[in-house]
Amino acid sequence: MNISQFHRNFLYNEIYIEIINYVIVMLTLQNFTSLNNKVLSKVNPLILGKHPENTIFSFNYQNVSHINKFIKASRQNFFGTEHILIDIGSGNSPYYPIFSDIVREYIAIDTADSLPKSEARPIRQIVGFAEELPLQNSFADIVLCNQVLEHVNDPIKAVSEMYRILKPGSLCIGSVPHISPVHLEPYDFRRYTDLGLESLLKDAGFIDIKIEGNGGVYSAAALMIAMDWMLTSRKEGKPQGFSASRALLLSPIVGLMNVAGLILDMMLGNKNRTPANLCWTATKPLN
């Protein structure tokens, strides 16, 4: 080993040791100090961003940034201000601002415990399930369905319902995970490939199906590691937990991992086999 190799190896070891020390300090700080929730609620959005405008320091940056960009691009297909949009499995309707200027009515459909108790925006809330949408045939101009199909009991029925409520010629926009840790248990049932997703949409009657993955194996690995750090261990009969303080404390390392994943995918090539996330658009035919 020559001198330059020795120095390089020494530097790598020092960096590795510093990263490990940082992780230990941050985890210790989390375990032995209690970060005030009010402080976290103010500081976290500044560093991690506010969903769906997550920064690269966010544990789910790889997925959410892709979904956000894809939806913004899809929104460019619409003109006018009289559209009816149905957001299935809406939660807090984080994508409402993207469509607010083109919709006459924005309808959020989700379970009662998932919808906000006080919604100040002009969003009509309906309690319901993706497999039985309480809407008439050919009602909507746009259907939005993000990160939902992996959680429903019957995805075939759910996609058929999206098709049913869309007007002919209208667009369905959505996303599903290809790779992800188990989450939101006990309602996490499946993952999708682009081939399986295309088949599901085609069987429901959709045409002009376009599916886009969000990166390669290194970005997916960064997402998996970061999510695993933030989620609690699975315990029978207990829901998923999430550590907001850990998300903040580990954000510098998460940011480095996300950057490394993007660079490695770019340098070493993306084989289109391991995207963490898949986004799609699909059209209901005119006849």
Question: How does this model look, in words?
Answer:
The strands form two sheets. The chain has a seven-stranded mixed β-sheet with strand order 5-4-3-6-7-9-8, sandwiched between helices. Strands 1-2 form a two-stranded antiparallel ribbon. Helices cover 42% and strands 20% of the residues. It has a single domain, classed as Vaccinia Virus protein VP39 (Rossmann fold, 3-Layer(aba) Sandwich). The chain contains nine helices and nine strands. The chain is an alpha/beta fold.
Mean pLDDT: 89
Shape: globular
Q: In what order do the strands lie side by side in the largest sheet?
A: 5-4-3-6-7-9-8
Query: In the CATH hierarchy, what is the superfamily?
Result: Vaccinia Virus protein VP39
| Number of H/I helices | 9
Number of strands: 9
The CATH topology is: Rossmann fold
Uncertain segments are none
Instruction: Please report the distance between the alpha carbons of the first and last residues.
Output: 72 Å
Short description:
By secondary structure, the chain is α/β, with parallel strands linked by helices. The chain has helices at about 5-30, 35-50, 60-75, 95-100, 155-165, 195-205, 215-230, 245-250, 250-270, and strands at about 50, 55, 85-90, 105-110, 125, 140-145, 165-175, 205-215, 275-285.
